[in-house]
Amino acid sequence: MARLPYVPGFAGPAAGGGAAGAGSPKAVGKALRARVPRAAHAEWEADAGRPDAVSAVEASNAGRLPGLTPIRAGRMAASPFAFLRGSAGLMGYDLVRTAVTGMGAQLCGDAHAANFGLYGDARGGIVMDLNDFDETLRGPWEWDVKRLAASLVLAGREAGADEDTCRAAARDAVGSYRRTMRLLARMPVADAWNAIADERLVSHADARELLGTLERVEAKARRNTSARFAAKATEKSDGGRRFLDAPPVLRRIPEGEAAAVALALEGYLGTLPEELLPLLARYEVQDVAFRVVGTGSVGLRSYVVLLLDHRGEPLVLQVKEARPSVLLPYAEKAGFAPPEAGHEGRRVVLGQRRMQVVSDVLLGWATVEGRPYQVRQFRNRKGSVDPAALGTDELDDYGRMTGALLARAHAHSADPRLIAGYCGKSEELDEAVAAFATAYAGRVEADHAELVTAVRSGRVAAEMGV
User: Fold this and answer.
1) Where are the alpha helices (DSSP H) in 255-375?
2) Which of 59, 146, 154, 455 is most buried, taking the most CB atoms under 10 A from its CB?
């Protein structure tokens, strides 16, 4: 039979098939170990030019609403793990000075242990996956792995786990990432692409001790809906409903500001699949309020929009400011081309769709008074595990679960055969990244202590407990 011509957009002969020949992705990944040994990922040392923690926090406040930065500082000062959650940019500075393989993937950019969670799909099912993509961009796959590992050490220390348990959680997360990538590399492409977090993944990750916790979180997530939020956060007004004023987290805004957000939803509709437009056409925009979000996002402009259908049933959308990824300058230094200039909300949405198997069907983007925003459902049956509250027997299970989820997410944009070839069968990479994570956690603790000192001295204004 005559060979069909090469079709652009599909794999060519050089891509290799199932065999691990010299030009196969697996062989290419394996050969990369000679240039970047897996043991090299253990190495990190703060350089003389590293910004001090307080200066880094102050610099990252640029462009944020000044009245909210004390809330951000207060949240970051709560613990070393909380400091890590708010300092993805500072870690980016450090990561570009570690061993970099040059193999790229779509990164979460902020893959710490608290950024995995449950959320609802369009048919009422519950899925577990990465759930924060503000910093997403293409970069070295190992950066997400190292951030996850370091966060597990810090979460474990906050929970009171001993050092062996913390290091084991980091090591097991990397091992689970490595084994899952190898599993995905062996699977039929379509099966690997559509793999989701279910009982089989829990079994593969050997996370059975976590099942009880996940069941409790899922039960809570099913109650975490727009209707429940609207029942607590709104009141009847002129035949409809409006948001209650509950500062500093939720507050009413001037009519002109609310109108600008509402009018921007017209542009948002243009970013959705056409078949969903009749769905949103059956809702009426009722009210807009400002709502403070997240540790890393505090100070960004973020709104909730109340929509009601003909029965008065609510749907709440979140309209959240999108800024360039804090990892962008470091990814460029690592040899990755910057994304095409464009809408930052679009970057976030496309990054999320590239990494998740199931995404919010109402994900889109909008522009409000010249600023880019991402738009998504608010309280879409979301639930999360607090890694700093896990028991000793659960922490490494959670590490294995999140490591498997991260591998699956990376495998959408990077050939799993390539990364699996580099990671290999041995535990060399697991041990190296665990060593990095332990050392880096110590640096974060020192950074956190610097911030706490600055708060106590009055150099940094902070509102604690908000």
Assistant:
1) 255-269, 277-280, 328-333, 344-355
2) 154
